Amino acid sequence: MSKTVRRNVLITGASSGLGEGMARLFAADGRNLALCARRGDNLESIAAELRSEYPEITVVVRQLDVNDHDAVFRVFDECDAELGGLDRIVANAGLGKGQPIGTGHFHANKQTAETNFIGLLAQCEAAMGIFLRRNAGHLVVVSSMSAMRGMKGNVTTYAASKAAAAHLAEGIRLSVADKPIAVTTLFPGYIESEMTAQAKGKQPMLTDAAQGHRAMVDAIEGEPDNACVPWWPWTPMSLLMQVSPLALLKRLS
């Protein structure tokens, strides 16, 4: 467990799913929050509930589409100023839509790739700008277990974008290895959310939302370089996926 207490936490994609779940747990632990997402009405409702339940914390809200790159920088800086300094930024916003390559759905796949990588790049640039100026902070990049290998069908572009996310996080980690700045990559398995509810592919070993959110927050608090969440069964599964021949991988995906 890290000895550093990160009091002020920004989370993107915080209006539902994993982002909302993490926000609720951080709030219960007394952390001040900056909640960012495209759906402003959802954010306001969540923020009002958290302020009522935990009156000792500050919760700020910003409607944000991470594909509006200029807005990412502006919003992160505004939240940094409003909370008196961001200690941790969780780059969680992402998109799961996609179709098999070559079936005429380029624009859907392009949107996923742009959101999950270029949108993430903007978040990382903005976050690291804040942390490098302060020489402190914790960047959390939410990747996916699908990043371990290429995936077939509707998940091909999503998996590729999440692999890119993991490599981006690792590169940043190497770049600040001599600084008091932590960079964590989370690899969630199948955790109950709006995205998994809409997914058409296989979802083996689906974890219920409460357990999944707790596993993510516990991993974040430890500030490891990488974490598969929940640890079981996804850490052993990650090792299996990395060495599996294509015939077995086809059955797993």
TrEMBL record:
Pfam families cross-referenced by the UniProt entry: adh_short
A single GO molecular function term of this UniProt record: oxidoreductase activity
Entry GO terms, CC: membrane
Keyword list, A-Z: Oxidoreductase
InterPro entries listed in its UniProt record: NAD(P)-bd_dom_sf (IPR036291), SDR_fam (IPR002347)
Family in the record: Belongs to the short-chain dehydrogenases/reductases (SDR) family.
PANTHER family per the UniProt record, alphabetical: DEHYDROGENASE/REDUCTASE SDR FAMILY MEMBER 7B, DEHYDROGENASE_REDUCTASE SDR FAMILY MEMBER 7B
Name this protein carries in UniProt: SDR family oxidoreductase
Annotated source species: Antrihabitans cavernicola
